[in-house]
Here is the input.
Amino acid sequence: MNKKLALLLVVGFSTFGRWCAAQSGNAAKAPDAPPAITAPAKPDENASQPKPVAAPSELIEKPKPEAPAASATPVDLGAKPASTNSPEIIEALTIDHDLLGAIQSLAQQANINIHIDPSITFTNLPDGRPSVPMVSLRWRNITAEDALVEVLDIHGLALVRNSKTQIFRVTKKSSEPPRFTTLIQLKYSNPTNIMELLKTTFGDPLKSKVNADSRTSQILLFATEKETEAATNLVAQLDTPTKQVLIEARLLETSKSPRSVKGIDWSGTLEGQNVTIGNGRTTGTTTTQTPGASSTTTLPSGRTVTTPSGSSSKTDLLTQLGVGGISADSARGLYPSTAFLNADGVRAVLSFLNTDADTEVVATPRQVTADNVTATLAVTRAFPIFETTPGSAQTPASAKITYTNLGTILKVTPRIAAGSNIVLKVIPEVSNIDSKDRQIINGDINEANVYAIRRMETEVMIPSGNTLVMGGLISDTSTKSYSKVPILGDLPGLGLAFRRDTKSRIKSNLIIFVTPTIVRDFDFQPTGTDFLKKKSSDKADTEESAWNSGKPHDWKKPVK
Here is the structure.
């Protein structure tokens, strides 16, 4: 019984296995079989007609990116991603819409918030609807914001931004462009100078303004957008570092003043004597007052002599000679009672002296100055000038003292030209007190100084680092004076005892060397010019002979 049951189970499982294998074979061959034709199902009358629905994106299998091959270009990890705020350029922009719709569409694409001003109105049509103009355009490679601005500008509208709310207001374009304030910071230039140049960029100088703040080196603009842009571009070109020039100068001034005095001066004896020669008798009258009082004497020549009080006087001034008479008086104190000279009246000065003075003034100033700015190099002395004010019965006289600089003054103005050349404007001036001038004005003697001024002015172009030599500022004054006793001073040989000769000479010469050098890259330690370090090659004047020179003789040289 059990064996029969087991046999039946084996046969049954075997049969079931063959049936399953047959079913599997039929399923594999199903695509080759023709499709079965079935009757369509009857639609439900209560259900609505279904609409085609797109397949959800979740059900669509997206292709996975393949791993890069080994030979692919490596990714630059240091590169920054593109800014998402940069405006997107539209390759082809097409709009066929009314103006309001075009504005809304472009604003949405530009991702900006706009508000249309209610004051913008359009003409109504006969049916009462507003006549909004149509916009039809075909543009390429433009951003939505630029397209919006152009569309508004074509129709007389403007886009005004509110910086606080980030909302753009569409309003009517004003007949005048709006003006706003801009602050420009300068780096090198003087704001006052830049301010004057910026005024030339304004279309309406009465409405657009510019101010300068020297303390902070800033420019304050109140102008339109175009004027501000033009002013900013101009400032960028002008606000640059100013080039500088090193001025090296050598001022060499030589002065020579030899003086020779030889002979006998008789002026102390003969000057001041008054001699009158007459024929016959000479008479004179005198009035003598009480002791201690002054007396007045009238001489035959008509001259009146006053004797001071307390001095002795003679009453008899008569000198009777057989043929004639001589009366002599002296302003030096000789009593006029005789024509013969006594020992007190003989005053002669024997001079036999040579003096010599040589002066050499050398100054080597160095100064750095900006391009086209004057540099002043001076070696001077301050001399006082007295301005007197006469007094009156109520106020005393007063004097006011002012000073003037006399000496050597050199003014140099460099201007850098092309090719490392420098245009130099040089003005050397040498001044000193020459003499004094006296004039009588309203009975008062007025005295003033006379100044001798030597001045040159030139403008030359020289290469940087070269030396300009200026000379010719020479002053040479020679003076000769003679005094002698008439006739006796003309005698050969013996006449030397009765005359005196004086010779003097004052000669001064000024030579100026100027070397300009361009200072590059703010190098404030430029190399000095070797030429200025050398001794001057100016030749000295011919030396005076040993007879006329006041210098000790150098016995190494031959005697002239």
About this structure: Residues 382 and 405 are 4 Å apart (CA to CA). The radius of gyration is 59 Å. Residues 89-172 form a domain with the Phage tail protein beta-alpha-beta fold fold (CATH 3.55.50.30). The longest strand covers residues 421-441.
